[in-house]
Fold these 2 entries.
Entry 1:
Amino acid sequence: MEQFDHKLLFHWLTGLNMNDAICKHAVFFENWKCLLNAEIAQRFFTEVNKQANNFMSDEYFKVNRTLIQA
């Protein structure tokens, strides 16, 4: 049921019919382009950026792959 809900949502967001295939790479890429160009996607990413600004700083830090045992 969860996968079905995701499929319904994806089809709705991209304007696809329920019978349109989405599993092939080329079809997925076309759907992704449609989604990113949709107004809802632009509003979503604008809101994410606005909320993320509260957690960002100009302070620089570097992360390496050293394992630290906690």
Note: The chain has a mean pLDDT of 76.
Entry 2:
Amino acid sequence: MSKVLIVEDNATVLNLYRNALRGAGFTVHAAADGAAGLAAVSAFEPDAVLLDLVLPSMDGLTLLRRLRAEPRHAALPVVVFSNAYTAEKLNEVWKAGATQVPAKASTTPRHVIDAVRSAIAARTPEA
């Protein structure tokens, strides 16, 4: 069973996607801010991260950059999921190493599940 870490400070959004991912067969762990998310990646060792950009203590972009700076997390699939998109911010997110970047406002739980599955499948070698 694949493991997903959700880093999201909005409890309603967190619960919606945690329940959807669990219902789809994922083991899910959550962190409510960037610093806790960074610690959780090492402790939980997820197969993918669903990451909001606007977070307390450490924003999602900083968290993504710190993950990519660590060799053991350099290829970890990170689906950046936020409404904080300007053209400049979107460029920064891709440059920092996002795997996928769906927009919260126009994405359903099914889209998120599919994005996480495809990000994990792209990283996992065929058996």
Note: The chain has one domain: 3-123.
